[in-house]
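User: Hey, quick favor. My workstation is busy. Could you predict this chain's structure for me?
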Amino acid sequence: MRTIYNWLIGLVIASMLISCETKQDVWDTGICSPYHDCSIMEYLRGDNYNWELTVELIEHAGLTDLFEGQVDTLPEITFWGFPSYSVLRYLYDNKLERVSEIDVDEAKKLVLMHVTKGKVLKKDITVRDENYYIYESEQTGGTDFYTLEGSHLRAYVDIADYVYVPDGGAVTMYLYSFTAERMVPLSSPDIQPLNGVVHALNYNYVLGKI
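Assistant: No problem, here it is.
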């Protein structure tokens, strides 16, 4: 198990390579399928670089069954996946060295505020009305969710123009939290293990600000 100090060098390097914008910023892992023939937990365990501390926090919180699809009332979930670097910054900010030092109830709260019931893909999200900010009451676009810990989220997509074709370009997904009153930086959406979907958050995401 790596302590916070073992992660610091990697955090510095990563912070030099990423921007501070909140738009979707895909992790470039080459051309690959978004489908994974395993549970969400197995998928996370298979990528230590991005998810090692995420996995530790889920296990410490006693929520492994949820991510393995073994909870009868929640056979599928949507996980707004916070990366290891977000957990690392949380440890550093709270003067902790290991995930195991986080209070178990706090760990459970941190994880569940990133989980919504059911499988929601980017194609299920509605387009934002460009005449209004996403959080304005006049906004008719976007799709609202509540996490298992009660965070109020609104996901939405914007469709870019392509040359002279309106709305013929890339479809980009965004996430806004009414609870935290801020944009939540997305990275790679629509990662699809067998029991749900992972929408990976950006390395800049501050754990708990959702």
